[in-house]
# Entry
Amino acid sequence: MKRIDLVNKRFGRLVVLAYAGTAKNGNARWTCRCDCGQEVVVDGYRLRHGGTLSCGCYRKEVMREQIRNNAKTRAHIGNAASLLIRDHVNIGAMTAKSRKNRSGVIGVSRDAHSKLWNARLVINGKLVLNKRFAEFDDAVAARRAAEAQYLQPLLEAYAPERLATSDPCQVKKEH
Ligand SMILES: [Zn+2]
# Structure
């Protein structure tokens, strides 16, 4: 099958730099530079069908925007302590993509040895999700499901009325 040359083509925030070999599923992979400066290797099929439009920074911005726009959380924006550390969970660390991450999706990484996709999510220092998948999309789906199950309730727990209740993590307020 002839490969479609995508070099110099733009998809969302990504500009294709070079061909990066063929994935196990037969799809071509491409090294792209994101507008934010990050380089990522992405699946050509996902690129051409709009599945991947940034290095992951767009998704992060959308998530940030959702948190900002959420009436429940708005009261706590600017309060770094309550935003980042909640129930011993560092939300900032969980939602940050590691520098080593090349998949473009937070919590999903390629295992170089097994050639499988690792889907992980750490809550309270515990791995609540640690599974391997042959298909990238399955790993992403598993991470998304775990986020919905574990992370979303924590983000929603920023409600002021909840913070007012007893919380061992809260810094004692002076009266
Ligand atoms: Zn980016």
